[in-house]
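wait is this the right file?? whatever heres the structure
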């Protein structure tokens, strides 16, 4: 878990960022599976994994679009090319994925 979070916060490559973002679901699934109270904890763990993976699809689509537009997935090479319309939709896709991953009322399961 520590390695995944270390690479998640220190990477400069968008694809590694997304992969580490999704790999952080595995410890959450293990926590639900091991310390869940009800007998349906496996089903609850699967639901939370599928819900957060599906809701992070806008993040993946934004990253793939960014790589196709700028021919690079590195953050430093693509930062200077953002205009207002592109950056608004780019950050909106990121925020949709992040708000579901956080335990925020209204978007979290």
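ok assuming it is, sequence goes like this
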């Amino acid at each position: 878990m520590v390695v995944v979070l270390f690479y998640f916060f220190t990477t400069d490559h968008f694809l590694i960022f997304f992969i580490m973002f999704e790999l952080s679901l595995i410890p959450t699934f293990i926590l639900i599976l091991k310390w869940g109270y009800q007998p349906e904890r496996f089903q609850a763990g699967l639901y939370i994994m599928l819900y957060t993976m599906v809701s992070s699809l806008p993040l993946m689509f934004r990253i793939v679009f960014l790589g196709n537009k700028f021919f690079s997935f590195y953050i430093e090479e693509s930062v200077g090319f953002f205009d207002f319309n592109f950056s608004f939709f780019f950050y909106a896709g990121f925020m949709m994925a992040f708000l579901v991953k956080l335990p925020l009322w209204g978007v979290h399961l």
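DSSP finds seven helices and no strands in the chain. so i think its the right one actually
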